[in-house]
Amino acid sequence: MVATTSTAPTRPGGGRSLLDLVLRARELSILGALVVLVAATAIANPRFLSAQGIEDIFLNASILALLAIGQTLVVITRNIDLSVGSVVGLVAFVTGKYVSEAGHGLLAAVLLGLAIGAVCGLVNGLLVSLCGVPALVVTLGTLYVIQGLDHYLAHGQQINAADVPQPLLDLGSGNVLGVPYLPLIAVLVMLAVGYYLRSYPSGREFYAIGSNPEAARLAGVPIRRRVLTAYVMSGLLAGVAGVLWLARFGTVIADNAHGWELKVVSAVVVGGVAIVGGVGTVYGAALGALLLTTIGSVLVVLKVNAFWQDALIGFLLLLAISVDRLLAVRMTRALRRRNARHAW
Length: 344
Description:
Strand order of the largest sheet: 1-2
Largest sheet: 2 strands, antiparallel
CATH class: Mainly Alpha
Helix content: over 70%
Number of domains: 1
Structural class: mainly alpha
CATH architecture: Orthogonal Bundle
Radius of gyration: 21 Å
Distance between the termini: 35 Å
Shape: globular
Number of helices: 13
């Protein structure tokens, strides 16, 4: 796996390698937790590892992973997007209504979903980057605005799978060479965004902003443009997720993905993306989404009350934030000791 780097100045073999090691350890620990969780559940209920069970986990995790990838771009710039769940619900319903009434196919659904998501992300980005309104306030407000718009358009109606064009439904249930389309899309997006953040100067500027906004500004980083880009990308991926939600489930109501904004943030933080910005990878965020989805499936298989799923996610979120804080303190101390030795 490829880990991102901090923009803090370090000496060769110093802070950068230490940070890389910590990030790899976080991602490997999530992978290890997944293996242990799946193995323990399979022992308790061998049917858990059936082909259909594994496919369902990856299908359900794909939409959450896409949202987590978009959220990662925002969080590493020291911001947050709480509107993604509402955008998914709006896109799923509006797109479903459009294709069912107008008779359009897959391409029209994808383009409409991207357009709606981009507009929502653009509004968030303009308010945060240009107007200077705190991201928490902006996205909490747009969350309720988008929810209200969704309910207004729905008027209690629902979109039925029978009214959705078959090519769109095939996207949610089909596969290529045995690999379902949804996980394949999520992996391709993850690899593309991860490569961009690691390999392009503009991608590394996202981390510079999150690590030290003032230093990034003095270095000439276009902070407003990058923050705006992060929100637009988050909106675009939420639009894609809304179309995939429609393709996956077929039947859509106005409350789809209600409450998912906190699940997305949890997946990102559990995946090792620091809530204070500047640290984390999209690979870790995607693994966090897979872990949370697997936990939900495990609790269903073991017939555990759904309440404990939310409680466990909350515990993991608190644990991840605590670990991030502890690692940040230890890394700072380690860097100071290294720099002091080199100074001598």
